[in-house]
Amino acid sequence: MAKEWICVECEQDNAADEVECVACEEPRPAASSVSRFAGYKIARVVSVEAIPKTKLRAVKVQVDADGAEGLTIVTSARVDVGETRYIVVATAGSIVSIDGDDIEVKKATVGGRKSEGMVCDSPMLGWKGGAAGAAVFLPNTYTVGDEPPATRP
């Protein structure tokens, strides 16, 4: 039984029987052709704002090389601002593995703020080392917008 899917290109929800996205006509990816990091991006931290009366932060990130596309992600992970702060984020429509369960990332309201993805930790990425709940940081030698590396650098 096919299940509903979200277009990685434009984040449109699509019915299970749709073979292409109803919004942008991007073909539905075949299960075998999808990278395990489909929808994951290397992002540069632009700003971090503490959300009052919570332990949450609204993290603004740049997710494309030319700086045109940005996302806001609400997280409890500790994230610092800096030109050299590169993290990995899972955008809406991507699948993350948390404690052995695969979960689809969706846009949501968290702590009263719009959140457009998740900040990734090492276990989500299948990397050795690094703690659950701790954002992974990459050297700025990586390119913003690219998929993360298969192993921890």
TrEMBL record:
GO molecular function list: tRNA binding; zinc ion binding
Domain TRNA-binding, chain residue ranges per copy: 34-149
Transmembrane regions listed in the UniProt entry: none
Keywords: Metal-binding, RNA-binding, tRNA-binding, Zinc, Zinc-finger
Keyword Lipoprotein tagged: no
Coiled-coil blocks: none
InterPro entries: NA-bd_OB-fold, tRNA-bd_dom, Znf_RanBP2
Domain of life: Eukaryota
Domain spans labelled RanBP2-type: 1-30
Name assigned to this protein: RanBP2-type domain-containing protein
